[in-house]
Specification:
It is built from six helices and no strands. With 119 residues, it is mostly helical. This is DUF3619 family protein.
């Protein structure tokens, strides 16, 4: 008997909260919901027009970004024309002494290296 009474109290509380929430919905939102419910019930599909301004705005933004990146690349090349040569020279030099040490590569294949990697 107590379960039924508790369920009735719960239902009443939830109904009160629903009425409070439904009362706080704006009239414009109610109108959109009514229209969507009516369209769904009748099977009517509202055709939305193509958004030309959105298409042109997106294309303009893409061209602006591409143009800006091109200008930045040109400015970088003008300020440091010897940069590719220095990068190529640095790539020819060994990165560190470990690259030339065969013991380092032997250690990488050992079980000690696996224990360090697990930690």
């Amino acid at each position: 008997m107590n379960d039924i009474h508790d369920n009735d109290l719960f239902d009443a509380a939830m109904r009160a909260r629903y009425r409070q929430a439904a009362g706080s919905v704006s009239p414009a939102a109610r109108a959109r919901l009514r229209q969507a419910r009516r369209e769904a019930a009748t099977g009517e599909v509202r055709k939305r027009g193509f958004s030309w301004p959105l298409l042109f705005g997106g294309a303009a933004a893409a061209f602006a970004v591409a143009f800006g990146l091109n200008l930045r690349q040109d400015a970088l090349q003008e300020t440091n024309p010897a940069a590719p040569a220095t990068v190529a020279a640095a790539a020819a030099e060994p990165a560190s002494a470990l690259d030339q040490d065969p013991d380092f590569y032997a250690w990488l294949g050992s079980s000690d290296a696996e224990l360090v990697a697990v930690e």
